[in-house]
Amino acid sequence: MIQIFDQLGKIRSLSVECKAFLSDAVEKFSYKREETVFRSGNDCNYLYYITGGTLLCKNDSLTEEADTPKYTWVLVKDQIATCPESFFGNRKALHSIIAYEKTKGFKISKENAIKAKKFPEWMAIWDYLLSEYYAIHTIKSTYWINKDSKGLAMYIKQNDPEFLSLPGRLIAGHLGISRSTWQNMRSDIV
């Protein structure tokens, strides 16, 4: 639990009362390789903070081509994962989340996240996480929509270099390109 308090404390220091509440509200999670965290079409009732491993967000409505897997997002250590339209809104999840490898971390239910809003420091953390989540995904989406996979890869190199150590198949899927295109591009970026 200390690890999550340390991470949250980097955003905003936590009062003793808030730590006591979160100690009961935050749960550890661990998923095995290829285990489904949740499926599209369901409610996403958790916000996940990854301390180790990799989660893949997959848009189930996209068809995979032989050389291009369709992962909407690849999330790694110190990132949060959720389905925003479901967790922050009241709609069904538009994508599934799957553990690429053994993945662990902490999660908080939507119900407890809402209850924690009575603490001003949690509200600041909530706003920060929400704005960071959307800012990062908006930037990545802009590159992705404009089919600027090289620009996205350069952005990732500067802001999330650990991501580039993932297998080429995952990077290619995240960039929306074939593995062979990633291999050709890789030497310019890495």
Structure description:
By secondary structure, this protein is an alpha+beta fold. It has a domain at 2-133: Jelly Rolls (Sandwich), CATH 2.60.120.10. It has 8 helices and 8 strands, in the order H-H-E-E-E-E-E-E-H-E-E-H-H-H-H-H. The protein has helices spanning 2-11, 16-25, 84-87, 110-115, 120-145, 149-159, 168-175, 179-189, and strands at 26-31, 36-38, 46-52, 55-58, 71-75, 80-81, 96-99, 103-109. Helix 7 packs across helix 8. It is globular and about 55 Å long. It starts with a helix and ends with a helix.
List keywords for this structure.
single chain; 190 residues; alpha+beta; Jelly Rolls; four-stranded antiparallel beta sheet; 8 helices; 8 strands; 45% helix; globular
Order of strands in the sheet with most strands:
1-8-3-6
CATH topology of the domain at 2-133: Jelly Rolls
What does the average pLDDT come to? 80
Q: Rounded to an integer, what's the Rg over CA atoms?
A: 17 Å
The CATH architecture of the domain at 2-133 comes to: Sandwich
Proportion of beta-strand residues: 15-25%
> Count of DSSP helices?
8
Shape: globular
> How much helix, percentage-wise, in residues?
40-55%
Topology of this structure?
Blueprint lengths: L1 H10 L4 H10 E6 L4 E3 L7 E7 L2 E4 L12 E5 L4 E2 L2 H4 L8 E4 L3 E7 H6 L4 H26 L3 H11 L8 H8 L3 H11 L1
Antiparallel strand pairs: 1-8, 2-7, 3-6, 3-8, 4-5, 4-7
Helix pairs in contact: 5-6, 7-8
